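Table S5 (text form). Sequence records supplied for joint modeling of the two-component complex.
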Amino acid sequence: MAIFSVADLHVAFGTSEVVQGVSFAVEPGKTLAIVGESGSGKSASLLGATGLLAPTATVSGSVLHKGEQLLGLPVRSLRKRRGADIGFIFQDPLSNLHPLKTIGAQIGEAITAHHRVGRQELRERVLGLLADVGIQNPAARINDYPRQFSGGMRQRVMIAAAIALNPGLIIADEPTTALDVTVQASILDLLKRIQQDHGAGMIFVSHDLAVVSDIADDVLVMRSGHVVEQAPARVIYHAPKQAYTKELLGAARLGGLAARAPEPLPPAAPKPNLLSISGVWRSFAGRSPLGGGLIRPVLQDVSFEIGENEIVGLVGESGSGKSTIGRLVAGLDQPDEGKLSMRERVYSRPGPGGIGIDRQLRSEIQVVFQDPYASLNPRRRVRSILAEPFIVGTELDAVTIRRRVQELTRDVELGEDLLDRFPAQLSGGQRQRVAIARAIALEPSLVVADEPVSALDITTQVKIIRLLQTLRQRRKLSLLFISHDLGVVSELCDRVVVLEKGVVVEAGKTATLFGSPRHPYTRKLVDAIPGKSLQESPTTQRVAAHG
Amino acid sequence: MAEVHALAGTDVLEGRSEVVRSYASLVVGALFREKSFRAGAMIITFVAAGALLAPAVAWLLGHGPTEQFRDTALTEMGLPTGPTLEFPLGADGNGRDVLVRTLYGARVSLAIAIPATTLAMFIGTAIGLVSGFLGARIDRIISQGIDVALSFPFIVTALSLLSLNRGTDGKVLVAPSVVVVLIITLFSWTYFARLTRGLVLVLRRSPLVEAAQTIGTSKARIILREILPNIAPVILVYWAVQLPTNIIAEATLSFLGVGVQAPEPSWGNMIAEAQRSSLYQVQPWFLLGPGIALFLTVAGFNTLSAGLRNVLDPHRHSG
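The corresponding structure-token record, covering 866 residues in total, follows.
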């Protein structure tokens, strides 16, 4: 019998109905994945069903937990169930953990909120839980504070608190989205093991079909408040019926592609060098809690080249120094040692006045930033944002600029009717198109793209990547593509540079590097790509196409 | 994303997919839907109307602001009368009309506080922009300067400056109201400078500014076109916050007898006179007239600034 079943759930905020008639059920020991993009109502339906939404939301339908109706229950009896019978794991462990309480106390609270337990027994149970979620040497860490843990470890602490009372149902809302890819893999393994050990039912909310492919028994695909498709995982992954599911799946497959065997490549002529980074070191002065400077090395002896019309991927986990390289290349930062040169001309080296970028070189290197919300001036219309590079960098008259702006919008496949909007009126994908249009306005030879798609929905990511591919061919662009997402990198890049803690550990042709990684860190990254199993499906057209 | 929220509200655009005529028209629309802005604007309109209509009221009643009516406004014992038909708020110790003087006092308050606050806003914003954007040594020097400026005690400094304004023959060199404007400016530009500097420091490292740098935009253009439009609403809100403080500062100086000089009416010197002569015990309106007017104006601007903040700077009012 289902431990948790929802029938015809509707959730509305005021007049806008964000969930319109969703039904699903979870059996003990099984995992239901709810997948959808932002705004699809996936989180709202779960929070609505468990009474966690603000009182301004109106929720109707039926929510049965162990055969008992949850909707309409008073807050107090709902609270009793949450924690004891239903464990929650959220995306951001840092904002859900109290910064001034030890993790032992916080996990203990999950127990004492529902049961009366002696101090010694409580300690024993918390230690057991910490060991269970894979925290090493729990006795030494039980009195540590959240800030002393890494993101992945914090998520383990959250999981320990969620399973403290052995709930029959675990609800995980994007639990791995904020984590690095290798950490994500370990958290997914942990969730899977814990769920099997405890025989609990689990609802796993995610925006990415790849992430849930190893863990889901059933999948529910949502879009704008509706259920698009609902079927066993096998069916969703191998014989999806709806076009939208196929689209999501196509996006998810990008990841799996990275792990395919290297193909025999046609011997390509070596591309002439455009940009070279040689022996670059960079460190930042941090501040230690006791005062006094603390030098934090970020890049150590980094060297690589980017050829003409070549896309180079720069991968690594957060804190590996990827973005610092991007800023150095763009001339926004200066190296402590080493130099950067463009077409054999050194433009950045240490010392005062070390960044020597004249107007011509300035237009040669452009940047697309990660967050199009932050890099577009909210006070200017798209037309004015796109005219800016021409006003600043050329002597063109107003009429020509107007025409060039229109051409640009066509190049990035942005509707001309959007020119008079403000950035806040555009979707994430449209905003990133504006940012790309601005970057290519002055016809640069090199564009630095720093995580340009990671803030976007997965189907939008695919479209932006297609756009970058088209632009590269049409405009003979080179691209330094910085990303933590190996799937996207393998789809787009000719060569890949792998960065670990500021050191280049491996570099090479994409297919070779991902197909037979030499360095253990590269291997770890490749192994951690979610959704590799997707590639083994015989129905995968993409694999067939690559023959 | 935290940096995005340092930018003041794009919220008026939320849920609008159509082409909007102008950003300003949206903001004005949103302002008038905001309750506290409407309430504040109403009170201020009332005060401003009073200030504008002061000569008309004086003409209607036949009482100039400095005219004395010792025969009709004072009793045989020389005490001021309470409210009558001829003197709606009664008279003061010299037989002058309290209502007319209160209305003229509004002119003085606004005529000193508005230019002083505006001047302080321009100076402070300009200094803050330069200090925050150029950073390094210039920033250190300016920040030190602000600290020094902030360490002067307002009243003592104002008193000394105003007494310096007297030449050897005891006559004032510059009109005291001008000096009061300058003193208040001197003491409030620092707040604008600090606020602006803080906002600019956040924006300077934002993708917004770096994007402008990579297309080769000059420093001046970045400051004027990218940074200023984004921090202007916050500064404007602060203008409305600072204004009532400065109205009180003017009243304080006049109360101490160094601001606007009698017989010219100002709320500060009216309150001082009522208190000094203890005549408010027989004629409470002598004190209540300017007191209520001062309260209304300050409350009006505070309410208005709360409304402005809710619309222009929505990420700040919740915490």
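Note: Chain B touches chain A at residues 1, 3-4, 7, 10, 13-14, 16-17, 19-20, 23, 206-208, 210-218, 221, 225-226, 229-230 (CB under 8 Å).
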